[in-house]
# Entry
Amino acid sequence: MLRDETDSDRQHVESVSEIDRPQISGGRAMQILGPDPSLFAARVAGALCGALVSLAYMMPRRAREATARAVVGIASGLVFGGPAGVALSQRMGVTELLTPDETVLMGSAAASLAAWWVLGVLTRIADRAGRGPGS
# Structure
């Protein structure tokens, strides 16, 4: 009886290790590390939506300001989307209710929206400070 259990455990371990074995390329082991396409799509969609929503609230004055704010908003949505989504879902108490895609989408939109607003406010403060008190 004990021997049968050991043999079946050994077969299970061998089958699992075959699945998780990294690919061999040129004598070296390569681990495939790629982003999950659905999570990446959620990040991009969230970042774009955050930038578009904030455009409706605070219109840029010039094309250069719009470009800078769009690039910063989208980049921050892509980079900080995951951590921001996790933090927001925990703070709101809805972590168990959201899928990973929804969490990343929410975080990317929030990070993009926040970056867009911060950059817009800083641009306007810098414009006022650059004019001086007599202008």
Remarks:
- The longest strand covers residues 23-25.
- The chain has one domain: 37-131.
